[in-house]
UniProtKB/TrEMBL annotation:
Molecular function as annotated in GO: acid phosphatase activity
Domain of life: Eukaryota
The species this protein was found in: Candida verbasci
InterPro entries for this protein: HAD-like_sf, HAD_sf, HAD_SF_ppase_IIIC, MDP_1_eu_arc
Protein name: Magnesium-dependent phosphatase-1
NCBIfam families with a match to the protein in the record: HAD-SF-IIIC, MDP-1
Pfam families for this protein: Acid_PPase
Length: 177
């Protein structure tokens, strides 16, 4: 059932590290990694990793409302990020299946978002302010220069929460209505 009280942008972009999960996958995770269950992985040092508590609910809400989901990460180990997203499940299937585009590598998130918009043929929507980026690093606020609403995830211990998600959706709506 879609949520008629909310207005959504065309695309929601998620940073990964300290936004969707509580670590940097390129410095905290040691391969090989494997699933303990559908919501937890373990690395070779016995470090256990799961999504933050509200991430699954948020992504399922976006899917239910036909919102494009993009991952944008500066990770130096995209293979590890891809493996994590392949092992952790959302809605009984690998999380990676719910991302319409994954953009990896160093450099500004502006480039990640532009590449995704071009790949998904939604460049006009990008120009029209129909994107939100959820990210823990304040330096990525520069995406506002390309008309993307920047939603800062300030608390590494909690990551993306439903409260932050709803608050930022409302801010985006007020800015672009």
């Amino acid at each position: 059932m879609s949520n008629t009280n909310k207005r959504y942008p065309k695309a929601v972009v998620f940073d990964l590290d300290y936004t969707l999960w509580p670590c940097w996958c390129d410095t905290h995770i040691y391969t090989p990694i494997k699933s303990l269950n559908n919501s937890t992985i373990i690395d070779s040092n016995k470090f256990k990793l799961s999504f933050y508590k509200d991430v699954e609910k948020i992504i399922l809400e976006l899917i239910e409302n036909n919102i494009i989901i993009i991952g944008a990460s500066r990770t130096a180990t995209p293979s590890v990020a891809k493996k994590i997203l392949s092992l952790l499940e959302i809605g009984d299937e690998p999380a990676i299946n719910h991302f319409d585009s994954l953009q990896w590598g160093q450099g500004t998130k502006i480039n990640h978002i532009r590449k995704a918009a071009k790949e998904l043929d939604i460049v006009d929507e990008l120009k029209n302010g129909e994107f939100i980026l959820f990210d823990d690093e304040s330096r990525n606020k520069d995406v506002e220069s390309i008309n993307v609403h920047f939603a800062h995830i300030k608390d590494e211990s909690r990551g993306l929460t439903m409260e932050i998600f709803n608050k930022e959706l409302k801010k985006w709506h007020e800015k672009y209505k």
